[in-house]
């Protein structure tokens, strides 16, 4: 599945910035008010042609409907000790590729530690350790795809999943009653796994439905009756090694990686209104897969830039509404790692954006 879309997202997140992995660029250690002991945020996330007000899809050469996104998220934080905060989050994503809709589940669990360093009252620092990931029952692309210069009529990735262990350091300084500057750095380990790959491709001159297993062996049968010479074949089976189709399951779809990122943001507040402008750079080091992608004439994507803008308004001391948006230079690379593999990554060098709207409850 080639998620290649894009958009303009404009928006914001919650008061205490409790978000994690998919929204790291909004991290901050200090807010304009005292951090609440508990908070919960609920939002709807989307991307489509209506939200793409700057027509970025057309500029990226993306066909209509490709990359449409509809989903939601819920996140929560609880300060269970003076220096410790527990956080959790869950994202549900539906991403379209022409006639296919792929559902992705993304949970996160993290803990923050605020060390007692006798910092200035205007400064704040925390460290965070989190584990997060993405999983799907399948990723399906029903239209033709070139994989390592070989044409596949259909591709289905069964049970793709990834998980990440991440460590962050976040520092904030309040300049005055209207401005806060934030900086952060992150490092982490990532693992991507796929159980099975199903493709529709030609073998012996006939269109076959082929299943490729974790040991890279495949078996397949006729997708539809096939004429060979003067014979009409209604049954035909094939077996072999997936290298015949330029695929290596262990190098193209299962891999380990390391990543690091740096970023910063600026918060500006006036009465009940607050805005935050944020940037993040991420670099990834992957085993085997990038060399495979390069050897077949495609460009490996080793980094990503993210830009975010958020607006919020305090409707009540305990209720904050938000509108939030992010734009990624290279799709969801680094945010949904399993979409980057030797089968699905051929067009991930496309800008992608995401807009969110929702509400945050705190101080309860």
Task: Give an account of the 3D structure.
The protein is built from three helices and 22 strands. The strands form four sheets. A twelve-stranded antiparallel β-barrel has the order 1-2-3-4-5-10-11-18-19-20-21-22. A six-stranded antiparallel β-sheet has the order 6-9-12-13-14-17, with no helix packed on it. Strands 7-8 form a two-stranded antiparallel sheet. The protein has helices at 56-59, 249-252, 289-295; strands spanning 38-47, 69-81, 84-97, 100-113, 123-135, 138-141, 145-147, 150-152, 154-158, 161-174, 179-193, 196-203, 206-212, 217-222, 226-228, 231-233, 237-241, 255-270, 273-286, 303-316, 319-328, 352-362. It is mainly beta and 364 residues long.
Helix content: under 10%
What is the straight-line distance between the termini? Answer: 43 Å
Structural class: mainly beta
In total, how many beta strands? 22
What's a quick, concise take on this entry?
With 364 residues, the chain is mainly β. It is 4% helix and 56% strand.
